[in-house]
Every structure is written in C-alpha cells, then in structure tokens.
Design brief:
The structure holds 2 protein chains of 2 kinds.
Chain A (H helix, E strand, L loop, with lengths): L26 H12 L5 E2 L29 H6 L1 H5 L5 E4 L3 E3 L3 H11 L3 E7 L7 E5 L6 E6 L8 E9 L14 H11 L3 E5 L4 E3 L3 H18 L14 E3 L4 E2 L4 E2 L3 E3 L4 E2 L4 E3 L2 E2 L4 E2 L4 E3 L1 E3 L4 E2 L4 E3 L2 E3 L4 E2 L4 E3 L1 E3 L4 E2 L7 E3 L1
Parallel strand pairs in A: 1-2, 4-8, 10-13, 11-14, 12-15, 13-16, 14-17, 15-18, 16-19, 17-20, 18-21, 19-22, 20-23, 21-24, 22-25, 23-26, 25-27
Antiparallel strand pairs in A: 2-7, 3-9, 4-7, 5-6
Helix pairs in contact in A: 1-4
Chain B lengths: L2 E8 L10 H4 L6 E2 L2 E2 H10 L4 E8 L5 H14 L3 E5 L5 H8 L1 H5 L5 E6 L2 E3 L3 H11 L5 E7 L2 H4 L3 E6 L2 E7 L8 E9 L3 H18 L14 H9 L5 E5 L4 E3 L3 H18 L13 E2 L3 E3 L4 E2 L4 E2 L3 E3 L4 E2 L4 E3 L1 E3 L4 E2 L4 E3 L1 E3 L4 E2 L4 E3 L20 E2 L2 E2 L4 E3 L4 E2 L4 E3 L2 E2 L9 E2 L2 E2 L1
Parallel strand pairs in B: 1-4, 1-6, 4-5, 8-12, 14-17, 15-18, 16-19, 17-20, 18-21, 19-22, 20-23, 21-24, 22-25, 23-26, 24-29, 25-30, 26-31, 29-32, 31-33, 32-34
Antiparallel strand pairs in B: 2-3, 6-11, 7-13, 8-11, 9-10, 9-11, 27-28
Classes of the chains: A alpha/beta, B alpha/beta.
Chain lengths: 348, 421
C-alpha cells in the first residue's frame, strides 16, 4: 500500500504497519493473538499486510496482496478481496494500521452479532474531537445517526477509532474503484441505519505522526505494566516502563527509561541515557549519548556523545557522527549526518 | 644595553567585551593555554638578554590576585616586576608618559611596550636586531603583521616604504593597507618628546574649548591615534613585519583561539606543559593542558585545544573539545563540553551538553584574523562561544547552546542563544 506521507522517513523503506511499537510482536501478530483469543474465525485485513494467506483452518493471517491498483483507499482493497472475504459468509474485521489500542476483538464481535446490522465501528472519546471525524450515535443502541467531519461547534467527543467489523453484505456497496470507506460508504450505511458504534475502553492513539507514535508507545507500555508486567524489563539502570528485546545488549552505567522500547539486535554502549524513545532493530547507540523522545530507525548508528531530542526521527541506516546535537531532526534513510541540527528540520 | 619592558594591562573600564569572565579576575590574568594571559608576555621578555625590569602599567586598583601573580612571577623568572597604577585611564601613551622617569630610571636606552591583550610569538630579539641593522638609534619600531583587506580596517593600518612608515591610520573606514599594528613596540627615550608635544597641544586645545565635557583630560594620550599618525612619514617610525602567529584577545571566543595558538607553540617552547596519552590516563587528542592538581577520569576524551585548570574534576566518559575549564570546576559523568569556557567553581551535571559556536578565522586564508563580532545582530544573539560565569550550576541532562550565563546562577532547564542574568 502507499505509505502514509506523514510517517516518513522510517516508512520510506518499509510500510508503517511493520514499525513495531513493541520489539517482539509486530502489530499483525498481536491481532492474530487477539483473534485466537476471541475464538472467532475470520480474516484480518489490513492494507499493506505483506504475508500470504495460510490455508489452515482457524484464524487466517493476512491476505494475498490485492493485485491491481494499490492506490485505492481502504475500501478499494476490500472490493478486490471480495471473493476471499465473502467466502464462508462470516463477518470480517477491518483495521487501520496506524492506530494503537487494546484491540477488543471479542467484545466487538459480540456487539456486532447482537445488533445484526451490516457494520460496527469502534469509537473512542478524545479531548479535541474537532481534529477528527466525529460520530453521532444513539446512546442506547449505539446506532450511528451521522458523521461530521472536523466540526467547528461541539457535536460529540466520540471519534472513529479505525477498527471495524462488517458483514459480507457490505461488499455490495463497494465498487471496484478508489473509494473512501469513511466518506462514501459509512454515511450511506448510517442513513440506512446499518452502522453501529461501540465505545472503546482503555487507551487509543492515532500514531500516524512520529510525535503521536511516541505518545501511543507510552500508553501501550502503561497498559502492559497493568496487564503483563513480567514482559517489561527491569534491572539496574532501568527506570519506569521499558521493553527490551532479549537479543538486545545494553552496556554498563546506562540509564534506560521511562517509556523506552528497544528492538532485536540493538546495541546500546556504555553510559547512554535514553528516555521516551523507540529504538528499532539492529540499531547501535554509541557510548555517552543522550536520547529523549526519538525514533531511531533500523540499523542506524548513533555516534558517541550525541544528544538527540524533541521527536528526532532517523530513517533506516542513518549514521550520526560523534558529538552532534539533533533537535527535532527528521532524517531520511541512508543519510550520514555530520553537522548538528539545532532547530527542527528535515534532512533529505 | 639596559632594556626595559612595559606591559599595558588596562583597567576595569577596558576589556568589557570579556565579561562575565572579567568580573572575577582582571582580564590580563585570565588563563590562556593554562597560564595567565600576561605571563606569556613576561616569559618572552625574560628571555631577552639585557632586559632589566618589567613594568606592568594599568589602572586596576590594588588587587590581591594581581599582587600574588606578580610575586610568583618575580620568583619564577628572576626579574624585577612592578605594577605602576595610573591614577586614571590615561590612554596607551598617557600612562608611559606619566611614568617616564620610572621607565628611564637606571639608564634604560630602549624599552618595549606591549599590549596585554594580544597573543603573539613575541619576536622581541628580532625587533632589537632589526633596529640594530638599519642603524638609526633614535628610531622606533612597531611590530606589524599581515591581515586580509576586509579585516585590516579593524586595526591600525601601516603604510610602509621599505621598512619606514609613510603613513599610519587607526581603524580606517576605507582600505589603506594590509599591514596592521600588533600592539608591540620598541621605543627609545626620544618617544617622550613626541608624546610631550601631543600633551602640550591637548592642553592648549582644552584651554580654548569650553569646559563642557568634564571627562576630557590633557593627559589622556593615545599612542595610535595621536602619536603614530603624527610620526609616520618623519623617518623615525619603522615597521618590523612578522609572519609568526598573532591575535587580539578581546572576547571570550578569541581567548579560546589564542589558547590554541599558544598550545601549538608549546610543542617547541614548553613540551612539558602538554598532556600526553598514558595508560590509565584520559585519552588526549591534539594539544591539551592539564593542571597537575586536576583530576581527570581515564575514560574522558580531551582535546584538541583544551585547558584544564587547577583542582578541576572531570568525570567518567566526559568529552571536552576547544574549551577552557577554569579552576575548581566540576564536570560530571558523560557530559559533552564543546567551544565553551566553564567558569571557576562551576558544576555541570551528568549527560549535560554545553556547547558554543566558534568564531575562528577562515582557515583557508593565512592572513585572516579572528573577528570580534557584535553581541547581537538583527535583534538576535550572534551564535558564539558559550560562557559559564563563576559558580554556575548546570543541572543534569540539559543542553546549553550559544549562551552566556552570569556568575552564581543555578539553571533548571535547557537554554539556547540566550544571556541568562
């Protein structure tokens, strides 16, 4: 699928769906976990999922990449996969890959069966609904009356959380052309009284922007602390919620955390301080450096005595020379940085 | 041939561009490459055979640091050194005119005059030989060096015919010459006649003028504007051109640059002052001075161009480059200090980054000199060397970039491009 533009640079070489918010499981396999927990067979469709479908019974992972025009909006690929989805006559989930939450698949499936309509969408409360598309629904049944895009006056504080479940009947509504499910399909379904809203419990974040990705990461780690604290890292020099891949190596006299995720094969040398960062697979952070609110891309090399802060994002295979200061730098992949970036900017 | 040297050290009203560093210690005592600025002058003078006495001249009030320094210097260099305090700021010529009897006492038939705020190779013997060569015992010699056309306008410009000066202009507004005045002179007693003439003229002018401006004094005489401009073309003023290193030390940035020049010179003149890589010691890159009482962790990486003062503590994994760390300062683990002057007894917390912007002259131009930038340009602080005044505390994990922190300030967050009062 086309990479959402806001997410560059890491995504210039990979789809945002594979940037892990946690080191071991990708988002895709976490959905799979949830699905099997919910004991409902169903296909998981996420734009851009690269893995091929497995022919085994039970939860099927991924789907064949839709052939043809991959520049469709979310609805287009559904039409392309029409045959796969319609087979079996069961409802199927549709997920936006750039949201993070606790993915209540079981509850959503139950909710959908109960009302019997064509579609259910998960909604979540936000503080600033005007930034998003707002959902107006009946309080008891959850039936959606209408959508309002970016309302200027307060209408509702519930927005579309990007998780849907549909009955196969929806496929009749979608034609084989670029279609926006939110703009074209949903309003029509709402008019027909076929769309219902289920309110999300727990955290939710749109992680399309690097700044929000880090916020979402913090929320996810907090939820992990509540539910599976044994998965978090602990030890000398670890502060707060920290997730470290077993294959990563952390040196002496480091202080890591709070809110840090460290990917597979990462090497953190001695005397490094990391706060509120995601460090992706294979990266190396050299000694005495200081990182706060950063995303360090796959296979990057951050030099010694480097200071990076304020949502600095390094794409894949970026080299940052020793003793530099990066403040809000967005660095595209395969770049070498030899000069400090004292004020936020993009390095191409 | 009895020789003397006079070092003009100015006073508190001068050297204001050196604030906040000049709040604690008189500018001439500020350490450059590990020793007080003026000690480099004294060392050079002491090397000249026949130099009988060194006179420091300025209008600082009696100062404990100054007296201690003079006592120590006398002991070390085995040459009489005295401080002559002007009763007011008398200008670069007014002071030596006022103290002419002291200077000439003991039958001195020639004397050097050196500005304290220059950094130089001090080719004093060469200047003496040069004067010997062309035979005129009543002539005066100015040390000159080459600057590029744009920067020459900031200095005293010398137009020379062969070696005699035809013309002298101080800080012209249009291009006059690339040869500039280094602030190091060799005079004979005859100079006092010429200064005396200027003094007379001033007095006459003052008498004519209405006494509106109370600060005007007849005794305030400037060598450059009042004496040299008149003497040029008289056949009495010679210029000895040098290609050796030379720089003014007007601002904190130029102190770091001057440090580098002197540290480079140490490899020939004082190799014992340069730190060496030793097992169990810190990693040294380039020229670094470390005071014997400083305590530096073996995982620290220092240099190039670093001076570590007395009693300084440098923690594990610290990186220092192009900086001067003054007495008693304490740098905690993993800090990174670049292009900075860290004031006396200051503290820098763990993982902090303290960084300035160098104002070095263009390395591709052999005649480029360091610019004395104005503090502000277009309403914003010009990026320059970061200065931490005396007893400043920088907390852990912050960044201090291109900022000046006044003494005794305890910071609580990061700062960039600011003067913190």
């Amino acid at each position: 699928a086309t990479c959402p533009r806001r997410w560059r640079p890491p995504c210039a070489s990979r789809s945002s769906g594979s940037a892990s918010a946690s080191p071991c499981p990708t988002r895709r396999s976490r959905w799979a976990q949830r699905l099997s927990d919910s004991r409902r067979p169903g296909a998981v469709v996420a734009p851009g999922t690269p893995r091929r479908a497995q022919a085994a019974p039970g939860p099927r992972l991924g789907c064949p990449r839709p052939r043809g025009d991959t520049d469709s909006r979310a609805a287009g690929p559904l039409a392309l996969a029409r045959d796969l989805l319609a087979e079996g006559g069961e409802p199927f989930f549709v997920l936006n890959s750039d949201v993070i939450c606790e993915f209540p698949f079981a509850a959503l499936a139950r909710f959908h069966r109960q009302h019997g309509g064509e579609g259910s969408i998960v909604v979540t409360r936000v503080e600033e609904p005007a930034k998003y598309g707002v959902v107006v629904s009946e309080p008891d049944s959850g039936r959606i009356c209408r959508f309002v895009e970016k309302p200027r006056v307060f209408v509702s504080n519930k927005i579309n959380a990007g998780l849907y479940i549909f009955s196969p009947g929806i496929l009749q509504r979608i034609q084989l052309r670029p279609t926006s499910i939110e703009k074209e399909i949903f309003p029509a379904m709402a008019q027909d009284g076929q769309l219902y809203a289920m309110e999300l419990q727990g955290f939710w974040m749109d992680i399309g922007q690097p700044k929000d990705f880090l916020t979402g990461m913090c929320m996810y780690l907090q939820a992990l602390r509540a539910q599976h604290p044994e998965k978090l890292h602990s030890g000398p020099g670890v502060v707060g919620n920290v997730l470290v891949d077993p294959s990563a190596k952390i040196g002496a006299n480091c202080v890591i955390g709070p809110n840090v995720t460290i990917g597979a094969g990462v090497v953190v040398e001695d005397g490094v301080r990391i706060k509120r960062c995601t460090v992706l697979q294979g990266a190396r952070i050299r000694s005495h450096s200081w990182l706060e609110s950063c995303i360090v891309g796959w296979s990057c090399s951050v030099g010694q005595w480097v200071r990076m802060e304020n949502v600095t994002v390094l794409g894949e295979d970026v080299i940052v020379n020793d003793e530099l200061y990066l403040n809000g730098a967005n660095v595209l992949p395969h770049k070498s940085i030899a000069e400090s970036v004292p004020e936020p900017r993009i390095i191409m | 041939m009895p020789l003397k040297a006079v070092i003009l050290i100015g006073g508190p009203q001068k050297g204001t561009r050196f604030r906040p560093l000049s709040f604690e210690v008189p500018k001439p005592l500020f350490p450059v490459a590990g020793v007080p600025m003026v000690q480099h002058h004294i060392e050079a003078c002491a090397k000249v055979p026949g130099l009988k006495e060194i006179l420091l001249m300025g209008f600082y009030q009696p100062h404990e640091a100054l007296s201690r320094f003079l006592a120590a210097a006398q002991q070390e260099f085995k040459i009489p050194i005295r401080y002559l305090q002007e009763y007011a700021a008398l200008g670069t010529a007014g002071g030596i005119y006022h103290f002419r009897d002291q200077i000439l006492a003991g039958g001195a038939d020639a004397f050097f005059v050196l500005n304290a705020d220059v950094c130089s190779e001090f080719p004093l013997q060469e200047m003496l030989d040069f004067r010997q060569q062309h035979g005129d015992t009543d002539s005066f010699v100015i040390l000159g060096t080459t600057a590029n056309r744009t920067q020459a306008l900031n200095y005293g410009c010398i137009v020379a015919n062969a070696d005699t000066q035809e013309h002298y202009v101080e800080k012209p507004s249009t291009f006059v010459s690339e040869i500039i005045n280094c602030g190091i002179y060799l005079f004979t007693p005859a100079i006092f006649q010429h200064i005396g003439q200027v003094f007379q003229r001033n007095q006459q002018e003052l008498a004519l003028e209405e006494s509106s401006n109370g600060w005007q004094r007849a005794e305030v005489i400037r060598l450059e504007q009042d004496v040299f401009t008149a003497l040029a073309g008289s056949g009495k003023l010679y210029v000895y051109k040098t290609d050796g290193f030379w720089s003014q030390i007007k601002s904190a940035g130029s102190a770091i640059y001057a440090s580098r020049l002197y540290l480079n010179q140490y490899s020939q003149s004082h190799p014992e002052r340069l730190a060496q890589n030793k097992p169990g010691g810190p990693i040294i890159r380039g020229n670094v001075y470390i005071h014997p009482t400083a305590s530096v962790d073996s995982t620290a990486v220092l240099g190039p161009n670093v001076s570590i003062g007395e009693g300084v503590t440098v923690g594990a994994g610290v990186r220092i480059r192009e900086s001067i760390i003054l007495h008693g300062a304490s740098l905690h683990d993993h800090t990174c200090v670049l292009n900075t002057i860290v004031g006396w007894d200051s503290t820098i917390g763990r993982w902090a980054r303290v960084e300035g912007t160098p104002s070095d002259p263009n390395p591709n131009d052999p005649y480029a000199k360091i610019d004395s930038e104005t503090l502000f340009r277009d309403g914003r602080l010009t990026p320059s060397i970061t200065i931490l005044g005396c007893s400043v505390t920088i907390p852990a994990e912050v960044v201090i970039l291109n900022s000046i922190v006044l003494p005794h300030k305890e910071l609580s967050r990061s700062y960039k491009n600011q003067i913190i009062l």
